[in-house]
Amino acid sequence: MRRVLVGIKRVIDYNVRVRVRPDGSGVVMDGVKMSINPFDEIALEEALRIKERGEADEVVVISLGTDDTQQQLRTALAMGADRAILVRTDLAVEPPVVARVMRKLVDRESPIIVILGKQAIDDDCNQVGQMLAALWDRPQATSASKIAIEGQTARVTREVDAGLETIVVDLPAVFTADLRLNEPRYVKLPDIMKAKKKPLEVTDLAALGVEAAQRLKVLRYQPPPQRQKGIIVKDAAELVAALRQKGLV
Amino acid sequence: MNRILVVAEHEAGKLNAAVAKCVNCAASIPDAEITVAVLAADGAAVAQAAAAIAGVARVLLVDHPANEPALAAVLAPQVARLAQGHSHVFGPSTTFGKDLMPRVAALLDAAQVSDVMTVESAQRFRRPVYAGNAIVTVEAVPGQQIVATVRVASYQPATTGGSAVIEAVSLDIPLPTHTRFVSVTAARTDRPDLQTASRVVSGGRALGSAENFAMIQRLADRIGAAIGASRAAVDAGYAPNELQVGQTGKIIAPELYIAIGISGAIQHLTGIKDARTIVAINKDAEAPIFEVADYGLVGDLFSLIPEIEKNL
């Protein structure tokens, strides 16, 4: 069985304007819409396309989180994943813990590919994929914008500062998805109904033998400093004069 | 004593400007002794440039044919070995550092603090989350090494004038062959680099076509600026993806940022809010970009760009 594992995270929907709580203990979560992290949705879409091209047989979606995370896993099943695994925890787990959980599940599931989003849009860490690849001692191709499976290898185009980098990696390997890898499909109503019958396994950290070690304590949240609104100039001449006066041109 | 290892990014025999910014960040840790690690195929010139950064005590040079072009899977075990005896391992929050450092952290069984923007103590750092809509203060639990990426837009480069000792190191560790470099699209070198330029001119969707985007290039060349683009302009194919400025592109901090035909989506603003002076040119006076601009000019960009050029 050629299997693809996809890691997804439940995060505040990207359309929500995030606000810091007045007491600095976190951000406002009450009544806020939650979704699959957009980069993870792209990762899942890519896994589904790999399967649809006949290059994999099964797509398994994994998440760590509270019971509510089942909603996002059901959405992933409706998109087309074959089964889901929820590693249930009420703790805010850090990337090294997520990577170790994924490593345990890799042992159990023996995938040819693991795909995750390049980062979650809540903590913006950009760590789990690379950490999993290190713990697994396998290749990583991060910030992927194109993935082509070529037998026992994959050719991956990565978005790097210089432009686009292409590497070839032996499988199994870990990929992380960038924005331009694909455009995720919309979920159709019949698929939502079908997804209710797909298997969703619930396990936890203890069952997998992973300790939720805390390495970084979050002391407080603050709103970012705001820029002051400037002035509107009347024409190009006034603009250039102002910039020249400040020595900027 | 805090012993900090800074991993050098370099390409074509040149040290990346982000490294001097990482050194500056490392130097803000109390009682810091800074070592720069240069992993290259033939890194003598890069090592010399690193040794000249003020505040660097030592440069470790690991020459190995497998080290170029840089691949995280190949570099990580070497950096992890060099990290022995260091309290901190820093790298730039560029695509190079983002790819490499978490792999190093996992090998060291260490936590990683991504995108450090302020050092409060040897264990305590501030970093942006939620696309810069919140700043968190994090503290590493004592008794572990700390791996971090440095948000380069938050730091000025350390000055030159240093004269650190360069030590050639040979690491006897097996390197993986499961990851192979094929190619990278060549970037133009006759323009300033977007990430380190002091002036940037960016164009948005309002340019309307790749042909019209040439107006941005012409203005940029006129004032010696790097070129940037909004996500909308990149998605529409007006500009290549490596020019994208914003949360999912490059986060920059130039002295002057000129946004032309860019409305100012939150993810774009995240990428420019450390710019010293922001100029916005847009025909919609209600565009959010004007909320953060120091100078706003409302009008048609196709007539305003030539007028600006005439006045320069």
* Count of extended strands of chain B: 18
On the 0-100 scale, what is the average pLDDT of chain B? 95
- Output the CATH class name of the largest domain in chain B: Alpha Beta
- Which percent range fits the helix content of chain A? 25-40%
Instruction: Please identify, by name, the CATH architecture of the largest domain in chain B.
Output: 3-Layer(aba) Sandwich
Main pleated-sheet profile of chain A:
9 strands, mixed
CATH architecture of chain A: 3-Layer(aba) Sandwich
Count of structural domains of chain A: 1
Biggest sheet, spatial arrangement of strands of chain B: 7-11-6-1-4-5-12
Strand order across the biggest sheet of chain A?
9-8-7-10-6-1-4-5-11
Give the C-alpha Rg of chain A. Answer: 21 Å
What is the number of independent domains of chain B? 2
Instruction: Estimate the global geometry of chain B from the Cα principal axes.
Output: globular
Q: Remind me, CATH topology of the largest domain in chain B?
A: Rossmann fold
Rg result of chain B: 21 Å
CA(first)-CA(last) distance of chain A? 62 Å
Please characterize this protein's 3D structure:
The complex is a heterodimer of chains A (about 250) and B (about 300). Chain A is built from 7 helices and 13 strands. With about 250 residues, chain A is α/β, with parallel strands linked by helices. Chain A has a single domain, classed as HUPs (Rossmann fold, 3-Layer(aba) Sandwich). Chain A is globular, with a radius of gyration of 21 Å. Chain A starts with a strand and ends with a helix. Chain B has 2 domains: about 170 residues, Rossmann fold, CATH 3.40.50.620; about 110 residues, TPP-binding domain (Rossmann fold), CATH 3.40.50.1220. Chain B is built from 9 helices and 18 strands. In chain B, the strands form 4 sheets. Chain B has a 7-stranded parallel sheet with strand order 7-11-6-1-4-5-12, with helices on both faces. In chain B, helix 3 packs across helix 4.
